[in-house]
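Bit of a strange request maybe. I'm writing a small parser for structure token strings and I need a real example to test against, not something I typed by hand. Could someone generate the tokens for this chain?
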Amino acid sequence: MKKIVLITMLVAAATSVKAQIQTIQTTESWYIDAGIGYSVFRYPSALQEVLDNLKELDNVTNTPIDMNFGVYANISEHITLGGVFNIGADRYESDNGWVQYNYNMLALSSHIHLNKQYNGLFFRTDLGSGWLSVVDSDDEVHTTDKGIGFLVGIGFAFPISKEARVAPYVNFENLHVDNEDYSKIAFGVSIIF
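Reply from user aminoacidic:
Good idea to test on real output. This should exercise your parser:
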């Protein structure tokens, strides 16, 4: 009788553990991805030279950030597709005011997962419409014409709860607007849920 009770308890415990593991590894039908990070921006040579000289001044601070927000749908076990808005803000500030260069891209995005979705290594590709805007402390805004932009990246996602994952990433983005190329490399962290 003790053996039957022990075997029944072991089977029940194994079934419970298996159910918990399956719950954690559930594939969702859609995901939200919100990321923030640090960017290194590259501009056409004449503007790059001016901004490099500006950075060297003692009273100028530079704050380069990367942000993205996307909604992705589950297409297969290894692919998610979605729409994403990428923003890069490169701000230069001094006692006399500030100027900020914004990289903007609205794109179709894909994540290709080497393991299960958002559990391990994944690759990201975006293709969409991109533009730059320049804003300053005098409330002047200048915007380029829209051009084409692309992004390629790599990330590594790991679960922090049943519904959420954290994904450090590295991305390269290029915008071709007004017959010139603007690019950035971003290092950041996304929360995916």
